[in-house]
Structures are given as C-alpha cells and as structure tokens.
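User: Before I run my own analysis I want an independent prediction to cross-check against. Here's the chain; please return only the structure tokens and, at the end, one sentence I can use as a sanity check.
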Amino acid sequence: MQRLAVQRVCAGCFQPFWCCIFALVGTLLSARAADLALAREDYQSGRYTNCIVTCQKAIEDDESGEDWRLLLARSLVAVGNYTNAANVISTNLDQFRWSIHLRLLGRDVFRMNGRLNEAQGLLEEINRLASYRMWNYQDAASLVTLGRAALLLGADPRRVLETFYDAAKRRDPNSREPILASGQLALTKGDFELAAKTFRAGLKKFPDDVDFHFGLAQAFASSDRLEMISAVEEVLELNTNHVASYLLLADHLIDGEEYKTAGETLDRALSVNPHEPKAWAYKAVIAHLQNEKEAETEARNKALTVWKTNPDVDHLIGRKLSQKYRFSEGSQHQRRAAAFEPRFLPARIQLAQDLLRLGQEEEGWRLAEQVHEEDGYDVTAFNLLNLQDAMAKFATLTNQTFVVRMATNEALIYGERVLSLLERARTTLCAKYSMTLEPPVIVEIFPKQKDFGVRTFGMPDNPGYLGVCFGSVITANSPASQAAHPANWEAVLWHEFCHVVTLQLTRNKMPRWLSEGISVFEELEGNPTWGQGMTPRYREMILGKDFTPLGDLSAAFLAPKTEMHLQFAYYESYLAVEFLVKKFGMDALKNILVELGTGMEINAAISKHTEPMEKLDKDFAAFAKERAENLAPELNFKKPGLEGLAKLDLELGADSKNYHTLLQLAREALRKKEWQKAKAPLEKLIKLFPNQRGSDNAYSILGEVHRRLGETNEERQVLTHLANIESDAVDAYQRLMELNRATGQWDAVATNAGRYIAVNPLVELPYRYLAEASEQLQRPDTAIESYRTLLRLDPPDPAGTHFKLARLLHEKGEPSAKRHLLQALEEAPRYREAHKLLLKYSASTAPATSTNGVEPTPSPK
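Assistant: Structure tokens:
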C-alpha cells in the first residue's frame, strides 16, 4: 500500500508551513535591514541622538548583528560619550569573537578613554585572527579593516596598499571602503595630490558621501583654501553636525587671525561633542596667540581630560603655533607629544621641521632620518632626506653674522655679493629698528624650486614664493630656478632679512600683514626701484571691492582669489605701514613691534600708539583711496566697453585720455609695424603717467619703437628712465649697455651691468660689459674680479678673457698673470698680443745682469 506524504499547512493560506516560516523570516530580515539603513542615514546626516536611540532599541529587541553595535559605538563617540562607547565594545567582544571590525573600532575607542594596553591588545587579537582565519576575511570591508590594523601595527604602507586596499578594490569595485582607506592613507603620509585624486574618484561613485567630501577638503587644506571651503560646505549641507568640518574651518580661521569667529566655530563643534579633544586644543592655540596663559592651560587640560597622554593634542597645538612662526613653542609641544607616545611619527617629523627652521640642524636632520627609517612612505621625511643629500654639495660662506649656503658654482660667481648685500642690510636695518641681532643668521639659496619647496614647506610644490624667513633662517630661490624672468635677488634678500629684524624684535609674535608690509616698505627705502608701486590694476582693486580694512589684512593672504590678489595683499600691507609711519612716525611703528614682543594683541598695540582701530580703518581707507586716485589723475582708467572703444575712444586716437585705449592703439600700431603711429599714444601715456612700472609699461614699448625708427638718442633716454624706476628690466639694462658702450659712456655701462647682475648673475653678458667699463674707468680691481667671474661662466672668447686678465694682473705685479697668459695661448696658440705680453713678462721677471762686474745674487729656488 502506497504511503501518502503528509504536509503541514498553515491555516487560511493552504501553503506548506515551512514556506510561511521562510517568508516571515525574509520579511523580518528585510525590515531590519531597512531599519539599519535608516539608522546609518541618521548617522551620516548628523542625527546622532536618533541613531543612538534606534540602535539601542534594536539591540534590546535581541537584534544579533554586529553592525548595530558598531553604529551605536560610533554614534556615542560622535557626541563625546566615550565611556559608554567603550562599554558597548567591551560587552560585545565575547559575543562577536571573530569580529575584526568591532576590535578595530574598539582600539580607537579604548584609546579615547586612555586604555592604551587594552587598545593594543585588540590590535594583536586582529593579527591573531587574521593569521589562522584569513579565509574568513576576504570581503572588501574585511580586507580594508585588516589593512588599517596592519598600518597601526607598523606594516609598510605600500604593502598594505597593494595587499589589502588594492585587493579589496578588485574584490568589490563598487565598495566605498577601499577607496576611502586609500585616500586617507595618502593624507596621513602627506601625499595630498594623490589624496585629492582618490577622493574625487570616490565622489564619482558616491556623490553624497560625507567622508569623501571631507577627505577632499583635507587634501586641499594646505594648498587651495577656496577648494577646501567649497568641500566643507558640501559636507555641512549633508551633515550640519559634522564636528571634523567645524574643526577644519576653525583651523582656517585661526590662520586668518579671525580668532573670534574661530572660537564660535569651535563652540559649534563642542555643542555636538563637548569632550572633543581637538576642539579644546584649538581653543588652547587661540588663547596662546592672544596671550591668555590661564585660558590656554585650561583648554589644554580639558583636551586631555579623558585621555591624559593623548599625543594628538600637543601635536595639534604645536603644529598651529609653528604655522604662526612660533617654532620654539611649537617644538616644545611636539616634544611633549613624542614623550606621551614615542612612536607617534607626526610629532617627530613636525619637530624635525621645526628644528630645521630654528637652525638646530643636527637634531632636525637626525629626526627626519629616523622617521624615514620607521616609515618609508612618509613623504615629508623622504623629501627632507633627498634635500639633505642635495645640500651636502652646497658651498658655505660665513662671516661673523651670516652662514650662507648655495650651489658651489653659484657661490663662486656671486656668493661674495650675497654676503656684502646682507651685511649692508644688517647695518642699515638693525640700526633703524634699534635692535641687536642674534647670530647666526642662516641663508640658503636653492637652484631648484623643488628643493626650496621641500626646505620651506616640506613638499616640492612652490606656491609662488621667492623667499621665506623663519626668524633666523632664510630660504630663497636662486635666479637659476626662475626660468626666463628672474626677480631681483638683491631685493628679495633685503626683504627677507628685514623679516629677520622684525621677527626677532617681536619674538615671532606679529601678524603676517605687518611683517610683509614692513619688508616691502623697507625694500623701497633701501632702493626706490625695489618693492611695489601703484599700478592701474591696484588702483582698480582699491577703488573697487577688493580693498581690505587694515584690521583684516592678514586674512587677505589666506585664501586669495588669484595670484594677483595675493600680490595686492603685499601691496596693501605696504600701504598700511607707509600710512602708519607717515601719520604717526617711525617711533610709533617701533613701539608697536615692541608691544607685540610682549604678547600684546595687534589691534591693541596699534591703537595704543596711534588711534582707535575704528578711526584708523577709516583714515587708512581714505589714504589708500587718495593714493589710488592720484595715480596719473589726468588719465581715465575706466575700461571702455566694446562699443565705446570702437566708436568713441578709437575715433579720438592719441587725443584720448583713456589709459586702456592709448595702450590698445599703441599695440595695434606695433602689430601693423606702423612705428611712427605708435609713438603718439605712448608718449602721451608717459607724459600723463611717468612712474609706470611692470610688464605693460609704455617705456619699454616706446623704446622698441625708437629702435625700429633708428632714433638712438630717444631710445637711450626712454630706457634710462625705465631703468631708473624698474628693478628687473633686464632687456632695458642690456640695450643700455650696448648703446652707452657705443658712445663711451662708461659710467652708465657699469651702472646697468650692476643692475643686470642684481637680477641674473649667472650669465656672462653683464660681466663682460662691467669688465670693459671698469678698465676704461681705471677701476682695475673691479675689472679683474669681473674677468675672473667671466671665466667661470664659460665665455665665448676664453683666450681673450685670459689675456685681458693677465694684462691687468701684470700691471699690478701679480705672479698669477703668467698663468692666465699661458692659458690664453693654450686656447689660441697664435695669439700675437699674448706672445708680445709673454715676452714683456719674461723680460720683466728675468734675473738682473750686473753692470759693474759683480754677479747678482741668485734667487732662491
């Protein structure tokens, strides 16, 4: 008899009982997954309290997944409830014995609570689990977690990147975790370009992901503040309680000396997490910069309340102080951080840079080498060690005050000129500011921009700086690094040495605008062709919307819209210093610097020795506006529209008084090679605007016109005026050397040769003219030195140069004359004049012959 299969059915639906059970389970799982997704959305959006409540309820309802515990702990951390977050980890470790995610998060949470041994124990547990259960951790998220743990255990970052993060990307190309981890690794190692590229790639896949937007903000924080702010704004649109974004904004505001706004931003962060250590660390920085010692100590203590040996706190305080050029105080905080945790590499590499900027080079280089040995992926340490190798080949020139390091070939050419210029600056500026210099002052001149960038900023990028002063250490770009249009190196070094004076006088406690303003002011005092002058573009910016009140000038350096806006910040700062000196006298400026050295806040110091800031701002604005309006007052600087330019101004031609129209007319005539027609608008521009400088000046254009027309005297006159007001007009200097040589005006030849050398001392042209002019002017010492320098620059006629040098040395009775004469004949064996001089030299050095029957005493061998 056949047995019938009996199935249990669910009453009312006539389905097998087990089908209903599976359907119910599936429905419940789907609901819980939806709940978890909503909780994660709350977390991403900054609704941390909602997220905590949802997670707690799910766990109370016997939700067994570890994701709920992870999310609960992260949410508790976000609001500063570190103790409860640690409890969540502790009570779930046994239940989730295989969870590497819970243990990695637990490591961070335990450290926040100062439970360092337990935190390290969790890392070691991850390592043990991976060693015998690696097959269980092959999904993308687990590979990333193992990679993060490996980094914390000291694994090589490159191997982590390849073994874990890249493998995770291959395992799941749509996972966010490996992309995020790769970008964060690049950030921690200082590779900001790679970090930005990685985060941008992540945003293409996850456009609303808070972590990718914030990572991008961090990547741009040191290079492009506008991009950084834009990325932070994206974050705060997605999460108004994103504490890390408020911290980054506060960092930016501190850089701009907007301390009040920075404090309010930190208060916003603390309203979310009242125990955030970095927020209190920033509070300590602000208090230090405002000379509020008790508030500084209190803020630092609050930062260390939960974790009393947190190295991040002192590292952050020290880093910000060093950014304010308080390198001595900054280095002390880095030493504290390193004492808390000796393997905390960020503090040690920052300390290395601080010490190098303080001139404490032996310890600085040693620290950089140690960091590189422990972490070969640290970009800053790697760059510094490469720089050290390059600088080992530099020559060193010294006197009682200065130690100058520069490329050996450059030191032979103009090293002594550098020392001479620096000594002149020391004599002038130290006396003017009534200060005694603390030697030595170290000056390093780099022939490669990337080396200057590494020495100055820790990275090879060079954001347009010619030189930087740290207090007693100056770094500068050599003319060799500045391509076809080098700046006047004498002006640069004068400017930077002025920083040495003012920074030492104030103990590095001065705002950037005042420091830069004084240095530009002293450039012009030292040489009227140096520094900056009013230009049509500056005039437009002052009279338009780009003028910055005196009290806010430091912010103008922080995130300039363009390179022009940065240059304008320098010029406006100079105007502010000139305004203060003209209205209140040099003593008022010196007294302000003294007050800053005692720790007084800048606006208070200025008000004490001038007038209240509100009135000062108004008076300075009026001063700047008057200066702008007095720039060629008979000219109209309004940019004409296309219609006006075509119909009105162009019809007037040279009778127009519009600056832009006259310049356009001249350029159009030049384009058509109508030289005579170009003269009228250019001559009018010069008549109405006689002190114009820069690339668009009418003098250089008119000089070319006169040259085309064969009007040599007029060309000389125009270019001479340009040379008298422009510090880097090398084309004008060269042409004037040619013209004045032809007419025997040797003083003018020598003057323009010196001007040329002050811009580019690394070419033979000016030395050739200077040597010839010096001979004609009976200045044999200058001529000899010029010919010697010329020989180091591989002149086109080495035989002639050796001969001329030999002749001058022979006339002075120098024995080295014969060596140069022989070198001339070696280069040109048939050099008749050299043969004649050799015979003459031989006759003059031959033993004397007795004329009275007595043999002369032989000379000793």
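Sanity check: The radius of gyration is 36 Å.
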